[in-house]
C-alpha cells in the first residue's frame, strides 16, 4: 500500500466517514482539503497518488479542480476520482471530459468509492 | 302524392324574386283570363244572335223574292195559256199532229203561222222554251224542238222525268204546276218547267209547258247585300237521292248542278235539314271546311232547300278583335306586372341578400362587417338586431379571448410553479441526502467500531437510527425519481412491449422465485411508441406491486397477469393480481404521492411507486385506473394513445434541458452527417 490520497470535500462529516472507511480499507496516508483552493494547493504540495473530489464545493466544483490539476500536470498522475452525492448520471460524461479517471456515487458506506479506488491504485 | 310534394318543395326552394313574379302573375292572370273569356263569349253570343237575325231577314227576303219570281212566271204562263191565239194554236197543232203528224206540209203551215208569235212571247217573257203537249202526252210543238231538243221531249215524256211529272200533275189538277229542277248533262243546263192546262170550254185541249233555266234566280242568290264578305246563299233541289246545288256559289261559280251531296250522308246537314222541310239556324262546317253560322229554310212552293250562311270568322270578327285587343292589353299588363314584381321583390330581397352576404362574411371570421340597411321597416329592424347580435358576438369573443389568455397565463404560472416545485424537490432531496449520509455513515461506524461499548438497549437504539436513516433515504430517492420523471424527457420510440416486459421480469427474477409467483404474460403485447425508460418504470412498479400484494395472501399461490387489449384509438394494458385487493374508497387516492394503505411493517416501500406510474401515464396523455375489491385481487388498467402528440428527437430534448448548447449539438450532428435536428 503506502499510497497517498488527497480527499477534497467541504462536508466535514463526509470527510470523517470517508477517512474512517479508507483507513479501515488500509489507506492510511490521507490528506484532506475542504475547499477548491486548498485542494489545488495540497495537490501540488503533497503530491498524492490519488485525488478524490466532491462535485459540489463552495465557489467551485470537483470538475473545475480536476480540470485545473490536469492542466497543471498534463499527465495521468495523480489518479482522480470524482465523487458525487447527486443521483443523476449525466455527470459521468462530464467527469470523463475534464480528465477524471473514474466517477462514483457518494454513499454512507463508501462501497462504490472503495471499489473505484481499488481499480486505480 | 310524391310528385305533388316534390312540386311544392320545388316552389318553396325558389328565390324570393321568382316567387314574387309567380304570385303577381297568378293574381293578375286569373281575373284577366276570366274577363277576357267572359267578354269574348258574351260578345260572341250577342254577335251570333244579331247575325243570325240578319241572316234570317236575308233568308226571308230571298225566299220571298224567289217565290215572287216563280209565281210571276207561273202567272205569266197561265196568262199565256189563256190567250186565244195560244188556245187556237194548240188546237191547230193538235189536230194536224193527230191527222198527219209532224212531218207534213200542213204542220209546217201551222208552224209557220204561229211560230213568230210564240217566239215573240218566249223571248219577251224570258223563257227558254215553250212546248205544247197534247192531252195524250205527245209533244206537238216546241220552239226549240225544231232543232236538237225535239228528241229530248220525246224521250222525256216517255220516261220518268220532271217534265212528264209536271205534265201529269197539271193535267190532273187542271191548274198551273211547277216542276222540280232537272239537269241535262248533255246540254250542261238545268231547267224547271211550268205546265199549264189549256181548255176550250171545258175540254182539255193540251198543255203548255214553259221551260225556264235556273239562271233566273241567280240574281237573287248573287245579291250579297247584308251578307258581308263571306255570306252566301245556297239553294238546293232534291234530285233522286241527291241534294243538288242549283245556283252558283260565291266561292265556286261552277257549282250549279255540279255540286251535290247524298241525302243521309254526313256532309251538308243543314242543307239536308232544309230539304227535309225544316227551318233553323246554327254553327257548322261548310263545303269549304270553314266554320259558318247558317240559317236554313225550306221553300215549300218549289220544294227547294235554302241555306244562308256566313263564316264565323266574319261573324265573330269584332269579338275576336275585341279578344285580340284584350290579349294585347293583357300581355302588356303582364310585362308591366313582371317588371313591377321584379322591382318589388328586389326591394325585399336585396336587403336580405345583403344580410346573408354580411352574415357570411361574419361567419368567415370578419367580425367588423355590419349590414348597411337604414330602412324603418321590418327588414330594417332585422338588420338592426342582426348588427346588435354581431356587436354582442364581438363582445363575447373578446371576453372569451380574455378568459383564454387568463387561462393560458394561469397554466403558464402553474407550470412554472410545478417546475419550481420539482427543482425545489430536487435541490432539497440532494441537500437532505448529505446529512442523512452522515447520520447513516456515523451510525454504521458506531455499530462497527464501538459495538463493545453499547449495552443491548444502546445497540437497539442504534439499529433503530440506522433503520430510520435507510427509510428516509428510500423516501428521498423516491422523491428524486418522481421529480426526475417530470424533468427528464426521453424521445418516443417504437418499443416492443414483449421485450420490455421480459427485461423487467429478468430484473425482478429474484423476487418472483422467492415468492413463487405464477406469472402470466399475454402473447399479444404490441409494439408501441413511447418513452422506453419510463415505460420500464411503469411495468416495474406495477408488477412489483402486484407481486408484493399477492404474495402476502398466505392461503393461495400468488398469481400475476400482464395483459393487453386493442382499443382502436389506444393501447390498453393491465396488470392483475390475486392479492388482498383495495377498497373502492381508496381507488382515487392511491395514485397520490406517498399514499400508503398499510403500515411499514406489513408492506415495505414508500408508496411513491403508483404516483410515479401515474405521472408517466399522464406524460403519455394516457389514463390509469384500478378495478379491485378487498379480498378479490386488484387489476391496474392503463391506456396509451396510439397517436402520441409528438415524437421528440433526442436533440430537441437535450436542447430543452439545457444539457447541450445549440452549437455543440449542430457540431455533433454534422459529425454524423446530419444537417438538421
Can you describe what's shown?
The complex is a heterodimer of chains A (121) and B (677). Chain A is an alpha/beta fold. Chain A has one domain (4-120): Rossmann fold (3-Layer(aba) Sandwich), CATH 3.40.50. Chain A is 45% helix and 24% strand. Chain A contains five helices and seven strands, in the order E-H-E-H-E-E-E-H-E-H-E-H. Chain A has helices spanning 12-24, 36-46, 62-73, 90-97, 111-120; strands at residues 4-8, 29-33, 50-54, 56-57, 60-61, 79-84, 102-105. In chain A, the strands form two sheets. Chain A has a five-stranded parallel beta sheet, sandwiched between helices. A two-stranded antiparallel ribbon of chain A has the order 4-5. In chain A, strand 6 (79-84), helix 4 (90-97) and strand 7 form a beta-alpha-beta unit. Chain B is α+β, with helices and mostly antiparallel strands and 677 residues long. Among the domains of chain B are: 82-216, 2-Layer Sandwich (Beta-Lactamase); 372-488, Signal transduction histidine kinase, dimerisation/phosphotransfer (DHp) domain (Helix Hairpins); 489-646, Heat Shock Protein 90 (2-Layer Sandwich), CATH 3.30.565. Helix content of chain B is 55%, strand content 18%. Chain B has helices spanning 2-12, 16-81, 84-99, 105-125, 145-158, 162-173, 218-221, 269-275, 312-315, 317-363, 378-449, 456-487, 497-507, 509-515, 532-550, 609-619, 650-657, 662-671, and strands spanning 129-133, 139-142, 177-178, 182-184, 189-200, 203-213, 232-239, 242-245, 260-262, 280-285, 291-299, 304-311, 492-496, 518-521, 527-531, 559-567, 570-577, 623-628, 634-641. In chain B, the strands form four sheets. In chain B, strands 1, 2, 3, 4, 5 and 6 form a six-stranded antiparallel beta sheet that branches. A six-stranded antiparallel beta sheet of chain B has the order 9-8-7-12-11-10. In chain B, helix 2 (16-81) packs antiparallel against helix 10 (317-363), helix 10 (317-363) runs parallel beside helix 11 and helix 13 (497-507) crosses helix 15 (532-550). The model of chain B is unreliable at 147-152 (pLDDT under 50). At the A-B interface, helix 1 of A face helix 11 and helix 12 of B.
